[in-house]
Every structure is written in C-alpha cells, then in structure tokens.
Amino acid sequence: MKYLIDASALNAEFSRLMNQYDKYHWMVAWAGKPFPLTTELCKNTNKIRKIVVGLHFYQTHPDFIEQFMGYKEIKFMTISAGTFHPKVYLFSSTPEKWEAIIGSANFTNAAFSANNEAGILITSENADKEMYNQIKKSIADAWDQAKHFDKDLLKDYYRSWERNQSKLKALSRLENKQKPGTPYFSIPIVATTWSEYIKRINDQKKAQIQERIKVLDFVQQYFQENQKFADMDITIQQRIAGYKWANQSADFRLFGNMNNAGKLKQVINNKPGLIGKAIDIIPLSGEVTKQHYEKFVELFQKAVDGGNKYRSATRLLAMKRPDVFFAISTGNNQLLADDFQIKSVGTMNLERYWDEVVERIQSSHLYQFPKPKNAIEQKIAAYRVAFMDVLYYRQ
Predict the structure, then answer these.
(1) What is the spatial distance between Cα 387 and Cα 251, in angstroms, rounded to a whole number?
(2) How do beta strands 87-94 and 48-54 pair?
(3) Domains of the chain by start residue, with CATH
(4) Global pTM value
(5) Under 8 Å CB-to-CB from 211, ≥6 apart: which residues?
(6) pLDDT tens, 85-96?
C-alpha cells in the first residue's frame, strides 16, 4: 500500500499500471480534454473492460466523449441519484494479481500534473480478494446505470457544456488573479451584500447621489433617443465622454472626467463615427458578453490609434451600460484595487479589465442579489456598477 500525494508520483504510478496490467476497470467523476494519459489509454483500448465517466457540472470535456464514444467498453453517467463523484482505477491481470488507485484525482491533465491530489495505491499483496470483488462490483453497478453516447447525445451535451464554460472559466480566473493570500470569496467587493453596499454609499460625505443619478439618466436618455452614437449632437457626445460640462444641467465630470484625454477629444471632435462604431457594439439592454466587449476594444483601439487608453474606454462603457461597466480613473483606481484585490493596478489595461473588474463585479453578492427598498435604491440598482465610483473616488 502506498500513499500518493505528489502529482508526479501519481502520474508515474498510473503510467506503470497502464503498461503492467491488461484489464482496466475504472469509474471517475469526470475526464478532461486529451492529455498524455489519454494518449496512453488510446494505445491500450484493448485492455478496457469497463470505464464509467461522470458528467455532473459539465466538467467532462466533450472532446473526451467524442474520442471514446465509439467504444462499447466506455459509458457515461448521464443520470444518478446525487452527484456521481468516484475516482477509482482498478488494474488487473487476474483476481490474484491486481492494483488500484483510489483517491481524489479525476482523469484530467491538472489532476496528474498540477493539482493538490491525494490517493491510496492498494495492491493484491496487501488486500484480500474480497476487496478486489467489492471494487469490481461497485464499478459494475455504476456501469449498469450508465449509457453509451451517440452523436445526438454529444451534440446536446456540448451545447450545455458550452453554455456553462464562461461561468467555470470566470470562476477560475477569479481564483487565479487576486492578490496572494486572499480566497476569491473573501475579496471585499465579492463578499459585499446589497445592504452593505447601500450603507457604504450613504456613508460617503460627498456621494452626490442625486447628481450622479441625474447624469446617468441624461446619458441613458441620449442613447435611447439615438440609435447610433454618431447621430448624436457633438455636445452630447462630449458630455458622454466626460469633457463638456460648462453651463450644463448635470455635472458630467462625475464618473471619471476625460478633460485631459486629448486623443479621445480629438477623435470625438473630428471623427466621432470611429468611436461610435465601437460604442454601438455594446447593446443598450440585455446581456453584454465578453465577445461584445472584445469587439468594442478592437474598434476602440483602431479609433484612438492604439495605446493604453483604458480610462477613456471604460468611461464610455460605463455611460452606455452603467449596470455592467465601471469607469476607472486616476481618482478611483487605488481604492478599487484594494477592494477588488487586483494585482498591479498600475499596469491595468483593456485586456485585463473584463477578467479582473467586470467578472469580479458580476460574481459579487451585491450584483447578483440587489434588493432596493425605495425609489433611490432602485435607481442605484439600475446603475449599480458605475455607481461604485462613489466608494472609490477620492480627489
């Protein structure tokens, strides 16, 4: 018997077992996209007797299913009472000569290379035949409940898998991009509830709540009345961009004024259609996807001739969709970094902004569960992302 705690040791033992024995009986919660051990499995398909792979949480990669769905010795657990979550790998030649790895490792590249996994290697030398029979029976019982896949079933699974990937990837990015030492669920902004958010806003002496609502109401009206940004009057375009505010009915300097953004002013004054194409990509209502954002970035960069103009870009985004985007400025970026646990905020750019700001906000309690109690809070809820400027802006 051996305790396997090191990924390299786990990988080495698994490879040895695949080569040494001629019968495989496995049941595993999920299997990842092809990796070196998958290649070994392909070379040894004649050794497969029964393999059952789970599909819960859409973690099993469709490429694995497609690669092996033609083998009658491999089934997939489509329905089970509770989550199908075993990781049992039995290798045998006879009932008297066998070994098994039982532990936490799924059949994925991460499990056998990077994850913190643990497993026990059991052999026929330190376990009796009854143990062998119990392991085989548990796999056989799972086998009886599982199904073979066909192309139609794979197509259905792929659609569901694809829909859930953005959530899984976003969670992974959140876990990997905060400052060291803080679990993502303890990041201040992620853990903040709606009532805590409202209290923090009301505690700010210079919150200018009504003035901020007025600005965003005006801007939303401008967008609703004009299908395209280029169709707006130049003065309105300048207000939205945040550098035209003299003698106006609202203080458009709020949410990051762009008075010093010379390039943005130049483009809007002379070629508003270029910026307009970028802004028009973002829908005025409904879901804003990462694909929308990436197309916006592509067109925005062309309009301003490249460079790291993320402050100008996020100002425009926050004006069009204050329920999705936050306008970063020199006045709010440091407190934002602290509350979001963002590493190296000084090197923030448009490539990082979606993953480290937008997705972090969208995973927060206050974003997902707004509970406005009055008309003012209803307005803040409608503009709840842009309104975070109240918390972070310092002159």
Answers:
(1) 15
(2) unpaired
(3) 2-156 (3.30.870.10), 181-392 (no CATH)
(4) 0.68
(5) 250, 251, 254
(6) 999 999 999 999
